[in-house]
Please model this.
Amino acid sequence: MTSINTTIGIDVGGVKKGFHAVANKGRQYLGKLHSTDPEVIATWALNHQPSVIAIDAPCMFSEHGRSRKPERDLVENGMRCFYTPSRDLAAKSRFYDWVFNAERLYQKIGLPIFMGNQTSTPCVIETFPHAIQMSLWKNDSSLAPEGSKSTVRRTTLVQKADYNISHLSNIDFIDAALCAVSADYFDRHQFNAYGCANEGFIILPKIALK
Model:
């Protein structure tokens, strides 16, 4: 049975680009918001009383290296991703400003982050659009669309989530919607979790074998 809970997906950018958020209801588009203020996005998301908020950004830094276990796990399973170093290493490069921006968002939302033990209470999960896309096409990899990132992800939403994308004006909202779809799979206990409690988990849809 399709979930009737509200889920939220959030794409994270740097301080100037900000956040793009999409709300779903039963995996159908409900609303969207863009803001550079993490408090505005957090308030908007929480006002929807979601069961799950899925964020496209690391939920923590590496313990003591240049990458986290969830990221290495994805690569070992054939999915590319950015690596997140320790906080000290990240602070030395402006590239990771968006990760610190995401940290502010997680803090403003204030819900518990999934760390391996799923509960019935609202929570936040970390997810990743590229890996969501690959997960949704896992059983039909030979039919997976080709082209630009925008084209592939739009097609994925339409064909694999039966999603109305007419309200999604750019790739950031598309990615946010994919995150919300991933949150819906998590809400229905149909997910794979990559990582560990020490360095966080990346959550992806689990597609039933045909």
Summary: Helices lie at 38-47, 69-76, 87-90, 97-109, 129-136, 149-161, 171-187. The radius of gyration is 16 Å. The domain at 6-59+101-189 is CATH 3.30.420.140 (Nucleotidyltransferase; domain 5).
